[in-house]
Amino acid sequence: MISINNLTVEFGGFTLFKGVSFIVNTRDRIGLVGKNGAGKSTLLKIFAGFQGPTKGNVSVPNDVKIGYLPQQMNHVDGKTVMQEALLAFDEVLELEKEIAKINTEIAERTDYESESYMNLIHRLTEKNDRYHMMGGENVDAEAERTLLGLGFMRSDFTRQTNEFSGGWRMRIELAKILLRRPDVFLLDEPTNHLDIESIQWLEDFLKTYPGAVVLVSHDRAFLDNITNRTVEISVGKIYDYKVSYSHYVELHAERREQQMKAYTNQQKLIKDTEDFIERFRYKPTKSVQVQSRIKQLEKLDRIEVDEEDMSKLNLKFPPAPRSGDLVVEAKVLGKAYGDHQVLSDLDFVIERGEKIAFVGKNGEGKSTLVKILMGELEHSGLCKIGHNVKIGYFAQNQAQLLNENKTILETIDDVAVGDVRTKIRDILGAFMFRGEEVDKKVKVLSGGERSRLAMIRLLLEPVNLLVLDEPTNHLDMKSKDVLKEALLQFNGTVIVVSHDREFLNGLSSKVYEFRNQKIKEHLGGIYDFLQAKKMESLKELEVKKVSRQEKVAEPASENKLNYLERKEMSKKISKMERNVTSSEAKIADFESRIVEMETLLAKPDQMQGTSLFSKYDETKKLLEEELSNWENFNEELDKLIAEKD
C-alpha cells in the first residue's frame, strides 16, 4: 500500500536516511525500532505526508486512507468528548444533514406527481443507501464503544474536551483515528497516555484490524502482542525482519555480532593500508602501489555500526539507609474532591523491602494515593510513614524542579557519591546523554530529556523508599532495562505506578489493584495478577466493571452469555432499537401528511384533479405497512432482550 524507493533525508548536513527502500503491505504489523534520534518519528511523518524526503520517492495510492497519531498535537476546544469523537464520521454526519434537509423539503411539498418531487425522492433514496452502507445508524454506538475501551466513562461524553488533561485529549484523538477505519495506522508512542486496561483494549483492536499498522513504541509487550514485522533503523539504513519484536532481538544480536566482526576486520584493513601509504608515500619506487592503495580506500564502502550497546551497564543504588519494618500504614484512609470520592476506607500496610505495583484504570486514585504518601494532599483517616523512612519521589513535574542553569553533567555530579562518580558519563550514556551532550544546560532540554535526567538524579540519592509515578514514559528500552535492573538490586522499598507490563514483570512482588474507590492486594507479579483474575489480558477488568455502589460482582452463571456473545447481542439490540425509533418517525410523518391531505379533501372547492385522492390512498397504505414493520421490530426487540437476560 505504501512504498518508499531510494529515500534519503538530510538535516543541515546530517544524513538521517541513506537510500532506504521498503514496502508496507496490507495486514502488515510493523514495529519501527532504533535508538532515540534514529528517525522513527520522521519516517512516520513522511508516510503521513507531513514531511518530504530530500531525495527518493514515497508512493501512497489516492484511495488509501492514513490515520496518523503523533506524539504531540494541537487541540481545538469548544466541543464535548462525544462531539469531538463523532468528527471521525464527518462524511456520515454530512449525509445526515443532507437527508434531514431533503426530508424537510419533501414534507413541505404538495406537488407529489411532479418531476422535481420524484427527483427529491430518488436523491433521498440514494443518500439513505449511502448512509446505511457507511454504517451511519451505528456511529453513536461505535463512538461509545471506542471511548469506553480507551478508558472514558459515559459521564465523560458530555464534558468539554478542555476539561481533560493532555493525556486524555490524546486519547480522544486516538479514538477519532480508530473510528475513521483508515487503511494504514501510523502510531507514534500510542501507549504513553494509556492505562494497562486501555492498552489491552487497543491491542485487541489492532490485532484483528484488517488494515496495516506501523507503530513506534518502547512497550515490549505491546510490540510483541501486535507486530509480525520489525524494521530497525540504524545509522541511516534499515534492517527488515519478518518477525515480532522478541524474535527480532535475538536476530539483531546475531547480526550485530557479525557486523562488529566485519567492522573490526575492515578497520584493521584500513589501518594497514594507511600505514603502508604513510610508510612509502615519499618513495618513488612505491608510488604506483601507494596510489593504488589510496584509490582502494576512496572506493571502500565503509561499514558503520551504532554506538556501543549500553544496556549491560551495571548501575547500583547507594546502600539504602535502614528503615523500620513498617514503611507505610493506612487505616480508614479516604480522599474526596468536593462531592467526588476517589478513595474510601483504605486499610493496608507496606513493609520494608517490598516492591509493589499500583495498577488500575486512570482516575481510580493511584496518583492520588502517591501524593498522599508524599504529604502533598490532605485526607481523611490515618496515613503513617514509618521510622527513618526517606522517600525518593519521581513524578512528571519532578523534571521542572531541576536547576536550569546547570549542565547535565553538573546536575548528576551534585548528587553522585563514592565510586559511582567515576561512572557518571557511562550512566548518562545509558540514558541517551552522550558525548558533548552532557555539557548542555538543563534549560535547553526537552521535556522528555528533563524527565530522564530527573530519573538519573533520583537513582543516585540515598533513600530507602522509592515512589515512581509512570517512570518509563520517556525512556527507551535500553534505559528501561538499566532502571529495572537497578530497582531489582535496590535493597529498600519500591512503589511503582506504571502501565508497562514488561517493566513490571519480575520487578513487583505484590500488586495493588485500584478499583471502585478501594484497593485490592494481589500477591505476586503482574502476570500472576492476570492469571489470578483468570484472564489473558486486563481488558476483562473493564468488561466485569461494576458500578461504584456495588461492592461484590455477581458470580457468573453458566447460563449467562459470554462477553463476546453479549457484545454481539448488544449490537443487535442497539440496531433494533434504532429501527423502532426510525419506524416511529416514519409513522409520525405519514400520519401528519394524511392529516394535511384530509384537510384539503374536506374543501372540494380548492381541489384540483383527482391526483390527491390517489396520493392519499398511497400514503395510507404506506402507513399500514410501516405500522406492521413497527410491530415486527418491537417483537424482535423483545426477543433479543429476553435472550440477553
TrEMBL record:
Gene3D superfamilies: P-loop containing nucleotide triphosphate hydrolases. Residues 2-260, 328-541 form the ABC transporter domain. The keyword S-adenosyl-L-methionine does not apply. Belongs to the ABC transporter superfamily. ABCF family. YbiT subfamily. Keywords: ATP-binding, Coiled coil, Nucleotide-binding, Repeat. This is Probable ATP-binding protein YbiT. CDD domains: ABCF_EF-3 (cd03221). Residues 566-593 form a coiled coil. It comes from Ancylomarina longa. The keyword Coiled coil applies. PANTHER family: ABC TRANSPORTER ATP-BINDING SUBUNIT, DRUG RESISTANCE ABC TRANSPORTER,ATP-BINDING PROTEIN. GO terms for molecular function: ATP binding; ATP hydrolysis activity. It holds the Pfam family ABC_tran_Xtn.
